[in-house]
Design goal:
Length: 612
């Protein structure tokens, strides 16, 4: 038997040690990101201004950061700090990273989630959903993922195959899984989910796959249980309507439209106003593209090409605004929605804004849905303007039922998914925009032909009616536009980029960072548009930037690279010579930039741009 001497101070020391250990654990425990924190994120009340907690920095989706260590006086000193190899490509990188607890989180085009030390790039964990890549590629034709959500210690990731999965943010271990869609049905997930209250909102892509009915869901953020689903177009009229909104929408369709799905996918635009308890989503185009194939002509086809305001608690429609009734040009309204407080005609207004695919910049009362204003921010000839309710005055010359027609803006849209940003110090919105025209022609398979009549070589008919909006620059495909959302005027413009690929973030350092799809990373002065920094990253197929701060040091980060071999959609024999990367820049960074990927000449006419 072993005998132990009892020391009277031992219990006291033990208690002190335990208390100290508990305090240490409490000090190490990261702050919970709950509804209150997210409500204040990106505002002057932000508790963590150096973090990036949600896709748009704020739930208003402004992509504005108060950081200013990097500013217009020193931005030329930016250099690459480190990179992280994302893994096999197969599609362009489009995800916005998140930053919390000194960690940077990202997701690749194949839905692989990773967590890194935000200072060094050291991998902390990595989680692969193990998609059936060949089947998913065949069923979707699009390898894309736009980002993650963060809530109460969980990273919530959309998987391309239709799963929504919550992972422990510290360990990467799965916490719950929900099934949103099935790729076999033509639906898949590319949208960055968002947090509204204690719910996750996510919509489905696939509106251009045919026979698909769009919808978006709300899930309990902690359990993954679905709270409600909102369909964006009506279904079979022989079946009961899901709600009164569907009963109203059914009156704006005709014939056997439901057999063709209807479209109305929800794959990008979202915002949330906690004061109004409203979630806002943008909806996709009607299917088939051309109205004469949709079962009835000259009807509005609700709620396609619309902005919807839905009550977060009930999932019921509060109001809608349709940007393009009876759309014929794929001018959907899925582009970024941004909530701003603006003074318009001397009156403070709570507005929802959108630089839409159709070329118009809209301001709408976000509580009532009342149209406030709209103006073309690029050259537009499909419409002659907007009436007092915001309904477009369609130019009859823009219809293409019998012959190809050249239409402004382009088929990919004046502004697509590449995020814009708003700087409260300048009062300007920075819009990645495209300027070129696009040729439409109806075909027998319900889809428009493009780039002229490929069967006969006939040149497209030119619209004679005068165009509206700023003139398109000669021989420039796209650029960055600084737009005054109150005066509806173009303040400055810089060449390069476009509405698809890359994107922007703006800061208190009087900067706009712009990532361009060809691999360029550029910084401009936010007030005057002076180019202050420009570097080629060595990759193409780029994602939008963010900026964050750890230990007093500011960084700028973004993903980029498709990881394609020459002429193929992925690695050859498992080898990727140009793997996609996460790039992180800082002042006086010394890391070497990768060698640029050689551009491959196109072997065929460019297809219709796809973004969802």
């Amino acid at each position: 038997m072993h005998m132990f001497r009892i020391n009277r101070v031992t219990p006291l020391l033990a208690a002190l040690c335990l208390a100290g250990f508990a305090l240490a654990l409490r000090a190490q425990k990261p702050a919970a990101i709950d509804q209150a924190v997210l409500k204040n994120a990106g505002t002057p009340k932000d508790e963590f201004p150096g973090s990036w907690l949600t896709y748009g920095k704020s739930q208003s989706e402004t992509r504005y950061s108060p950081l200013k260590q990097i500013d217009s006086s020193n931005v030329k000193r930016l250099g690459l700090e480190w990179t992280y190899v994302l893994g096999a490509g197969g599609g362009n990188q489009e995800a916005t990273p998140l930053v919390w607890n000194n960690m940077i989180y990202g997701i690749t085009s194949w839905s692989v989630v990773f967590a890194l030390d935000g200072r060094t790039g050291k991998e902390l964990w990595r989680w692969d959903p193990e998609l059936n890549q060949s089947a998913v590629r065949e069923q979707t034709g699009l390898i894309v993922n736009r980002g993650l959500a963060l809530y109460n210690g969980l990273i919530i990731a959309p998987c391309l195959d239709g799963r929504l999965i919550a992972l422990n943010a510290l360990t990467g271990r799965p916490a719950w899984e929900a099934r949103v869609a099935y790729t076999q049905d033509g639906h898949y997930l590319t949208m960055a989910p968002r947090i509204a209250g204690n719910r996750v909102i996510v919509g489905v892509s696939g509106g251009d796959k045919g026979e698909n009915r769009g919808y978006f869901d709300a899930y309990d953020a902690m359990t993954g249980q679905r709270a409600w689903r909102f369909y964006t177009v009506p279904g079979d009229p022989k079946l009961p309507y899901e709600n009164e909104a569907m009963r109203v929408a059914a009156k704006t369709w005709g014939g056997d439209f439901y057999k063709k799905g209807g479209g109305g996918a929800v794959w990008d635009g979202f915002a949330y106003d906690p004061e109004a308890n409203l979630v806002y989503v943008g909806t996709g185009n009607a299917e088939p593209w051309t109205q004469k194939f949709r079962g009835a002509q000259n009807v509005d086809n609700l709620y396609t090409c619309s902005i919807l305001a839905v009550d977060l608690t009930t999932g019921q429609l509060k109001w809608y605004f349709q940007t393009v009734p009876n759309d014929n040009w794929d001018f959907d309204s899925v582009q970024q929605l941004m909530l701003l407080d603006l003074t318009i005609e001397g009156r403070p207004r709570k507005v929802l804004t959108q630089a839409a695919k159709n070329g118009f910049f809209y301001a709408i009362d976000r509580v009532s849905g009342q149209f406030i204003s709209g103006a073309p921010f690029v050259k537009v000839n499909w419409a002659k303007g907007l009436n007092d309710s915001g309904r477009p005055l369609v130019n009859p010359e823009a219809y293409y039922d019998t012959e190809p027609v050249a239409v402004y803006p382009t088929g990919g849209g004046a502004h697509n998914w590449a995020p814009m940003s708003f700087n409260p110090n300048t009062g300007l919105v920075y819009i990645p925009a495209s300027y070129q025209p696009y040729t439409y022609q109806a075909d027998d398979d319900y889809k428009p032909r493009t780039n002229g009549d490929v069967r006969t070589g006939t040149q497209p008919r030119q619209i004679k009616a005068p165009a509206i909006g700023p003139a398109a620059p000669d021989s420039v495909r796209g650029g960055l536009q600084a737009w005054d959302p109150v005066k509806h005027t173009l303040v400055w413009r810089a060449d390069g980029g476009g509405g698809i690929g890359g994107g922007t973030v703006t800061t208190a350092g009087n900067l706009v960072f712009h990532v361009i799809n060809d691999g360029h990373f550029v910084a401009y002065s936010a007030d005057k548009g002076e180019k202050l920094f420009d570097v080629q990253t060595g990759r193409t197929g780029m994602a939008p930037p963010i900026t964050y701060e750890i230990d007093g040091k500011q960084y700028v980060a973004f993903l980029g690279g498709a990881g394609r071999g020459a002429g193929v959609m992925g690695p050859v024999d498992g080898k990727v010579d140009n793997p996609p990367l996460l790039f992180v820049f800082a002042l006086d960074g010394k890391a070497a930039l990768p060698t640029p990927v050689a551009a491959q000449p196109p072997s065929a006419p460019a297809p219709r741009p796809r973004a969802n």
